[in-house]
Amino acid sequence: DTGVSQDPRHKITKRGQNVTFRCDPISEHNRLYWYRQTLGQGPEFLTYFQNEAQLEKSRLLSDRFSAERPKGSFSTLEIQRTEQGDSAMYLCASSFPDPTSYNEQFFGPGTRLTVL
Amino acid sequence: AQKVTQAQTEISVVEKEDVTLDCVYETRDTTYYLFWYKQPPSGELVFLIRRNSFDEQNEISGRYSWNFQKSTSSFNFTITASQVVDSAVYFCALTTGTGTYKYIFGTGTRLKVLA
To answer: How many CB pairs below 8 A link A and B?
Structure first.
């Protein structure tokens, strides 16, 4: 099992540019989550997919953010017209509904975004 | 509303000391799950321990132990005989037994273990 992977690991961009991040969950996991973590804070929930359906979006996810999971496998998170406030670590996690393991989420290594 | 509070922002200990990280949570759900994660400088979240709301039995796993008390809504985590490699940021997280099962994280406690 290869775990959750994210690409790229680091991204530096200029304000106003668009960026896209990719997350590949653990293959049998049908739930996928995106979180954002700013410096000195804990991760904050952004959005949730069950298979290909996006079932919940946080108020943190402004109109400039869009996420997809086209075939219920990998997911992408796009930020349009980036702002310096978007600088953060973007974490992806996946899980499989299993109460015996407390629906534990498995996290990827994250994508660290720096907006200049 | 659900909330996780980690009041300790930073803790420094000398190697081999025991250290306890505090976590207080708020939820109205009767079924919920609590987790502790470690985040080293590399940034990846490393799972440590988990507990569900129906099991208040406290356990020890190697150098890790936890104290779950529903009466005080606390889920404290102890590292025994700390080591320099334990230096990291530690997060407590809460998820409920319904809905999306999204995690609510605390703000983290930075642990520095000095040699």
So the answer is: 68
Mean pLDDT of A53-71: 92
Q: What integer pLDDT is reported at residue B57 of this predicted model?
A: 76
Q: Looking at chain A, which runs of residues are DSSP E strands?
A: 5-7, 10-13, 19-24, 31-37, 44-50, 53-57, 65-68, 75-79, 88-95, 106-107, 111-115
Interface contact flag, B43 A89, Cβ < 8 Å:
yes
- Taking an 8 Å cut-off on Cβ atoms, the answer to whether A55 and B42 are in contact is no
DSSP B2-31: -EEE----EEEEETT--EEE--EEE-S-SS
% of chain B surpassing 70 pLDDT: 100
pLDDT digits (tens, 9 = 90+) for B74-85: 999 999 999 999
Q: Which chain B residues have a beta carbon less than 8 Å from that of A31?
A: 100-101
Q: What integer best gives the mean pLDDT of chain B?
A: 92
Chain A residue whose CA is closest to B46: A107
Alpha helices by DSSP H, listed for chain B, are none
What number of residues does chain A have?
116
CB contact under 8 A, A102 and B47: no
Q: Is some CB atom of chain B closer than 8 A to the CB atom of A70?
A: no
pLDDT at A1 (0 to 100): 55
Q: What type of residue sits at position A12?
A: I
